[in-house]
Amino acid sequence: MPELLVDVQNAGKIYTRGEVQEIALVSATCSVKPGDQIALVGPSGSGKSTLLHLMGGLDQPTSGTISWPGLGTCETLRPRKISFIFQMQSLLPPLTVVENVELPLLLGHVGVTKARKTALETLNRVRLNNIANKLPEELSGGQAQRVAVARALASRPQLILADEPTGQLDHPTAQHLFDVLLDSLEGLDIALVVATHDQAIAERMKTIWQMHHGVLEGAVC
Fold first, then answer.
1. Residues 105/154, Cβ–Cβ less than 8 Å
2. Is the pLDDT of residue 1 over 60?
3. H-type helices in the chain, by residue range?
4. Long-range contacts formed by 90-96: CB under 8 A, 24+ apart
5. Are the C-beta atoms of 151 and 83 separated by less than 8 Å?
6. In what order do the strands lie in the sheet with 6-17?
7. SS3 213
8. Of the candidates 201, 193, 171, which has an alpha carbon nearest to the alpha carbon of residue 40?
């Protein structure tokens, strides 16, 4: 059996705002293995983003535990082992497309020459090499999200966490973006967990987990 990339055991999350406590996640237990393709579905506010952030080490649970048996410690996860794709525009405005894609590699201490070569190869993989020198402000929404996909892929992570990556796109553009993402993963053993409210996107994944009011359903560990 392959070693688990993420192991979540009875993880809960409570946010405190002044005197008000908001329960975002209730005792979630799940795991992610190499090559998994999982859709995390549920309405806005159901806890999807919270669970993704915990899986990626961006936040810590209030209760329960999260470990990364196949990846190491929380401090070593990013930017090389786990990559994120977010819903909102996440490219750095002053950097060109290729500079945005190579940035995680440089932060991961890859040499300048190798980082640029890898970034250009990755842009070619998602058919965006023709806009490598453009700035984010020159891109359409669909192009910007495809660049975000390239940036997530460039470091060859073992896990990609995508938080509503098509949420700001129209249906045809969303489907095209997902075509690019799944095609790019073909032949690679990269696990993908996508939080989405788009049923058409969810149905293209191998596994679907449901979330309602912070409760995770359908996860098998």
1. yes
2. no
3. 48-55, 97-107, 112-125, 141-154, 171-185, 199-202
4. 90/148, 91/136, 91/139, 91/144, 91/147, 91/148, 91/151, 92/136, 93/135, 93/136, 93/137, 94/135, 95/135, 95/136, 96/132, 96/133, 96/134, 96/135
5. yes
6. 20-32, 6-17, 63-67
7. coil
8. 193
Based on DSSP, count helices (H) and strands (E) in the chain, helices before strands: 6, 9
User: For the chain, which domains are there?
Assistant: 6-94+137-217 (3.40.50.300)
Amino acid identity, residue 47?
A: G
Confidence grade of residue 220 (pLDDT, cut at 50, 70, 90): low
Looking at the chain, the whole-number percentage of residues with pLDDT higher than 70 is 98
Residue with tokens 């073909």: 186
What residues have CB less than 8 Å from 84, skipping those under 6 apart? 52, 56, 58, 78, 152, 160, 161, 162, 163
Both structure tokens of 38: 């999982």
- 217 strand-pairing partners: 210
DSSP code of 67? E
Cis amide linkage into residue 79, ω under 30° from 0? yes
Q: 3-state DSSP call for residue 76?
A: helix
Task: Please name the amino acid found at residue 113.
Answer: T
